Amino acid sequence: MTDHLIRATAADGGxxxxxxxxxxxxxxxxxxxxxxxxxxxxxxxxxxxxxxxVSSMKRPESRVxxxxxxxxxxxxxxxxxxxxxxxxxxxxxxxxELPPNADGKLDxxxxxxxxxxxxxxxxxxxxxxxxxxxxxxxxEIGEDLTYYLATSEQTPSALVLGVFVGxxxxxxxxxxxxxxxxxxxxxxxxxxxxxxxxxxxxSFTTHLRDHQTLPEIFASLVGDLDLTLLPGEQAVRFHCPxxxxxxxxALKMLGAEELQDMIEKDDGAxxxxxxxxxxxxxSASDLxxxxxxxxxxxxxxSS
Length: 303
Hints:
Elements: E1 4-10, E2 15-21, H1 23-33, H2 37-54, E3 63-70, E4 76-82, E5 86-91, H3 108-112, E6 116-123, E7 130-135, H4 142-151, E8 157-166, E9 169-180, H5 188-200, H6 204-209, H7 214-222, E10 228-229, E11 234-235, E12 237-238, H8 244-252, H9 256-266, E13 268-272, E14 279-283, H10 284-302
Parallel strand pairs: 5-12
Antiparallel strand pairs: 1-2, 1-10, 1-11, 2-9, 3-4, 3-6, 4-5, 6-7, 8-9, 13-14
């Protein structure tokens, strides 16, 4: 089944639920970046989180950036997710591998590190983006983002993220975000009930590997609380808008002197997109044209 995101409400609109499956897009990221098992889990969790966070925004061009930088060997993790269902991202040191933790699971916490920061930037498409920073809680990403939502957005939330990587690749990946909205936030018994049920929820990927659908998972959590599935299931996918023209535009910003140096020393230039791993090459002729464009622009500006 194609990766997708669905939304729902419960408790007479007092609870907001969003679920996303990301198996195919995480596998695409793993292949593009040549990621290890633990790096795949880290990036996969972050990409699902980005899609869940951006799902509450309104303008079609809205985007969320999630950046995690801890003191572990993976270095940084960066994800860019859009309300249009596209997501991309990368890990600084994607070849790092670690043994499983005491529970036999991929040790994302140690790979990222327990000491560091989580940065979230919300861009609504106009004006200055809203940025927030919190310290890492565990490096496990789900717990760190739950802490971010509680402290920076002051919304009682529970976030479950999961990636299961087998010998043949990513077998299941996705996430679930449950939030208690202001109209229900004063009902302490409701919050206690939801905390208990989320605690009882076993590994999210276990449900996906058992072929449970997102609506079935929702029903197991809040099916008795007036669960209402919202229309508009949304497809999500790994997508990067990089292109050869964008690469040439970036090279042009280096200036004529630097471009000429590239021609003389390397007979061209090569650039790799961090987000998707795509490699772009510019020939000496391409660089000469950029130099000519810069010359014409300078001549036009001075006339």
